[in-house]
């Protein structure tokens, strides 16, 4: 009983401390002292320094012993994929999950930066001169906790340049664009590899020693030495894997017990810094086909799209592209009035002697011929002028919407819009520029020397609600398979609408539309847009997840499941006779699998359910025997009279909006046939038709078509002759073998 007062006393003290938050939270000296906020000491969400509601504050002065002396401590600094002073990333400003500063996947959008901190994540203890700011439950989608909670293993270690002792930390392999390379990643010749290390207490220009090794079975072979130079709290050495001498040096270590790959790591050290830092390890190979890298990203900074510039004045051209694997090549096309000027610099200036629309296109290419495009359309003025632009579909876009779970996946409705088009009238270049139609910008981007303030923007008057009634739009739509456009819209105010294309794309950007925009003042401008309809191309062999990423549907990569990611639905991407399947396991990935008894025509379905639920557009197409006419749609159809599956072709008329379908519209013709086909002879087979739906006008004559990829193409003899030949050849080999055996006896 004597112990109870003591227990009670300490319990009360502990309760008071927890209530006050003394042991788990702190209040920073001022807002500039806050690095970030937490909702609790552990299992916490994160919040940026300038949001309210969270009381657990992570303070710079608590960690490093004094207030930060620099200005704007929360401003992110540096270039590249990650800011130099990045602490971590949050999924939002508050109630947020976290990512470590060196996470290499899709980045959260909210960067938490602070002062001159250099930070990285590690499962080890922070090195000398570093302090743990917070801990994470994982490197992505993580909860946070204070450094004193000791529940999470992934620490965010940071150092400040105000530290008195110089140090090197976080040596890591990086791509050319400064994004980090994960341990064990494959690196190929034909690229640039960056060895990078953080520095603290070292002046710009100081040298750091880099040594690159191959970690082989018998030890570590030193391969190459570099000296990197400190710049902005980092030092790096670039390993140019396109250089024949460097490749020869690396390749001399390949072979024998080490196989065809090298396990590369590097060390860094400096004479006045204690200890040698060792990097993570990547795999090098000289076989370029084994590596895939992200395409270049970035684009045009200037001139600004849809902006207005004066004739005869300087226009700046500037770009910002980045590449994972090495230096970029810049290719500009500047097109006005049908004339093209090509430039190859990152930035330059031009002036234009004529007014009118200028279409600017930039191609950024890397050392492996990967590329990306960007565009900018501008208007050069000195009188009445029009800018024409198609903003829907957009540049290099895929027009795609997930189709129904069942039913055929056929023609697509494509929305189009020219709402960014506009017309201007220049009454006085210095103070009277009028928006006379469309959606005009609010001001020009430069001004001529005759204006009061040379080069300053000039206000554009009457930029209220966009009005397109005084603009005439002449639209044209076509396909690579058509010799001329098949549908059009024309008239005042027709700046948006929808049109039906009769099939999906066979190749990238094989669908086209153009618009000519004119004003009663006489000003006219033209614009063309190329786009891709659907994502399943090359006869079902490729699925495009983006313009620059084509996935083979024959590989176990789930590409065949289409845009809705569900197998055996209407947008599956497979060649005729294949089905999107897996190995039957719950974790197996889907791929296009050749069926044991593939259904390649509607006739192959032997029951009503499978016939009417077919989702593969190539099956009725194969039964039809060729490409259907415009506005004729195909599907498999079950005939109860003949107890068989045939192909049904429903044809609609054509009007100014494309195919006249929907709204109770009746088809012009509706026919169905069952078909039979001969064996493949001389590369062709003959299809015969038996009408099962529709009048006598539906009857089709027999048709000869090329043999498909699943048929035998055997020249002058058919399958029976081919099989007989195999038996004859096998018999000859058996006879020769017996003869030689008897001869040896």
Query: How many β-strands, per DSSP?
Result: 50
- Largest beta sheet, briefly? 9 strands, mixed
Name the helicity range.
under 10%
Basic shape: globular
Name the poorly predicted regions: 1-25, 708-745
| Helix/sheet category | mainly beta
Q: Would you mind describing this structure in some detail?
A:
The structure is a single chain. The chain has 745 residues and is mainly beta. Among the domains are: 21-163, no CATH class; 168-290, Immunoglobulins (Immunoglobulin-like), CATH 2.60.40.10; 293-381 and 440-464, Immunoglobulins (Immunoglobulin-like); 599-706, no CATH class; 720-745. Helices cover 9% and strands 39% of the residues. The strands form 13 sheets. Strands 11, 12, 13, 14, 15, 16, 17, 18 and 19 form a nine-stranded mixed sheet that branches. It has a five-stranded mixed sheet with strand order 21-27-26-23-24, with no helix packed on it. Strands 29-38-37-34-35 form a five-stranded mixed sheet, with no helix packed on it. It is globular and about 95 Å long. The chain starts with a helix and ends with a helix.
Topology (SSEs and partners):
Blueprint: H1 4-20, E1 34-38, E2 46-47, E3 56-59, H2 60-64, E4 86-90, E5 98-99, E6 110-113, E7 118-122, E8 131-136, E9 144-146, E10 154-159, E11 167-174, E12 186-188, E13 192-200, E14 207-216, E15 219-230, E16 234-240, H3 244-251, E17 262-270, E18 273-278, E19 282-285, E20 297-302, E21 308-310, E22 315-322, E23 329-336, E24 339-343, E25 347-350, E26 356-365, E27 371-381, E28 385-387, E29 398-399, E30 412-417, E31 422-428, E32 432-438, E33 460-461, E34 471-479, E35 487-492, E36 496-501, E37 511-519, E38 524-533, E39 536-537, E40 542-546, E41 549-552, E42 578-581, E43 591-594, H4 608-612, H5 618-624, E44 632-639, E45 644-651, E46 654-655, E47 658-659, E48 669-677, E49 684-693, E50 703-706, H6 719-744
Parallel strand pairs: 12-19, 21-27, 29-38, 32-33
Antiparallel strand pairs: 1-2, 1-3, 4-5, 4-6, 7-10, 8-9, 8-10, 11-13, 13-16, 14-15, 14-17, 15-16, 17-18, 17-19, 20-22, 22-25, 23-24, 23-26, 26-27, 28-31, 30-36, 31-32, 34-35, 34-37, 37-38, 39-40, 40-41, 42-43, 44-45, 45-48, 46-47, 48-49, 49-50
């Amino acid at each position: 009983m004597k112990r109870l007062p003591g227990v009670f006393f300490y319990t009360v003290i502990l309760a008071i401390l927890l209530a006050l938050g003394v042991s788990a939270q702190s209040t920073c000296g001022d807002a500039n002292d806050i690095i970030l906020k937490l909702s609790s000491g552990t299992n916490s969400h994160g919040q940026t320094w300038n949001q309210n509601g969270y009381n657990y504050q992570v303070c710079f002065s608590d960690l490093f012993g004094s207030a930060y002396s620099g200005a704007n401590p929360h401003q992110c600094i540096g270039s590249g994929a990650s800011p130099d002073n990045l602490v971590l990333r949050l999924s939002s400003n508050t109630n947020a999950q976290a990512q470590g500063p060196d996470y290499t996947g899709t980045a959260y959008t909210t960067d938490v930066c602070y002062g001159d901190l250099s930070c990285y994540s590690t499962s080890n203890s922070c090195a000398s001169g570093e302090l743990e700011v917070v801990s994470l439950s994982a490197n992505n989608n993580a909860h946070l906790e204070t450094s004193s909670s000791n529940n999470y293993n992934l620490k965010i270690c940071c150092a400040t340049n105000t530290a008195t002792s110089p140090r090197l930390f976080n040596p890591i392999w990086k791509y050319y664009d400064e994004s980090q390379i994960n341990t064990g990643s494959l690196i190929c010749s034909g690229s640039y590899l960056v060895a990078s290390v953080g520095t603290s207490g070292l002046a710009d220009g100081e040298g750091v020693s880099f040594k690159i090794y191959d970690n082989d079975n018998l030890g570590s072979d030193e391969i190459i030495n570099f000296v990197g130079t400190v710049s902005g709290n980092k030092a790096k050495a670039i390993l140019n894997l396109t250089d024949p001498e460097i490749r020869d040096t690396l390749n001399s270590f390949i072979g024998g017990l080490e196989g065809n790959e090298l396990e590369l790591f590097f060390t860094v050290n400096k004479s006045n810094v204690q200890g040698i830092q060792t990097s993570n390890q990547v795999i090098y190979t000289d076989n370029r086909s084994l590596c895939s890298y992200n395409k270049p990203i970035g684009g045009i900074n200037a001139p600004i799209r849809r902006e207005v510039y004066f004739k005869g004045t300087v226009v700046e051209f500037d770009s910002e592209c980045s590449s994972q694997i090495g230096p970029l090549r810049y290719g500009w096309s500047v097109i006005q009035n049908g004339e093209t000027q090509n430039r190859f610099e990152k930035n330059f200036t031009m002036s234009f002697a004529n007014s009118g629309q200028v279409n600017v296109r930039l191609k950024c290419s890397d050392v492996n011929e990967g590329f990306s495009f960007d565009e900018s359309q501008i208007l050069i003025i000195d009188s009445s002028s029009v800018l024409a632009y198609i903003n829907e579909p957009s540049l290099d876009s895929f027009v795609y919407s997930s189709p129904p779970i069942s039913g055929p996946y056929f023609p697509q409705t494509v929305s189009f819009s020219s709402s960014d088009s506009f017309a201007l009238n220049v009454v006085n270049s210095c103070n009277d520029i009028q928006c006379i139609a469309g959606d005009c910008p609010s001001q020009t981007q430069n001004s001529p020397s005759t204006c009061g303030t040379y080069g300053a923007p000039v206000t554009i008057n009457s930029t209220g609600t966009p009005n397109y009634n005084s603009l005439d739009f002449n639209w044209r739509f076509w396909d690579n398979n058509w010799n001329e456009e098949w549908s059009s819209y024309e008239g005042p105010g027709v700046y948006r609408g929808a049109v039906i294309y009769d099939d999906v794309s066979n190749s990238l950007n094989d669908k086209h539309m153009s618009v000519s925009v004119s004003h009663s003042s006489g000003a006219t401008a033209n614009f063309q847009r190329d786009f891709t309809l659907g994502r399943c191309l090359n006869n079902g062999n490729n699925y495009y997840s983006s313009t620059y990423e084509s996935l083979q549907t024959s590989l176990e990569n789930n590409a065949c499941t289409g845009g809705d990611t569900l197998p055996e639905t209407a947008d599956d991407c497979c060649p005729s006779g294949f089905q999107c399947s897996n190995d039957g396991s719950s974790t197996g990935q889907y791929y296009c699998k050749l069926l044991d008894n593939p259904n390649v025509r509607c006739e192959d379905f032997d029951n009503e359910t499978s016939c009417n639920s077919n989702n593969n557009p190539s099956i009725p197409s194969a039964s039809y025997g060729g490409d259907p006419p415009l506005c004729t749609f195909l599907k498999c159809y079950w005939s109860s009279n003949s107890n068989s599956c045939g192909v049904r072709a429903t044809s609609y008329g054509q009007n100014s909006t494309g195919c006249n379908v929907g709204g109770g519209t009746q088809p012009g013709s509706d026919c169905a046939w069952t078909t039979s086909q001969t064996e493949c002879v001389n590369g062709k087979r003959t299809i015969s038709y038996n009408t099962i739906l529709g009048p006598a006008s539906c009857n089709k004559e027999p048709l000869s078509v090329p043999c498909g990829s699943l048929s035998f193409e055997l020249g002058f003899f058919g399958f029976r002759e081919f099989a007989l030949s195999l038996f004859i050849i096998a018999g000859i080999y058996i006879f020769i073998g017996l003869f030689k055996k008897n001869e040896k006896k």
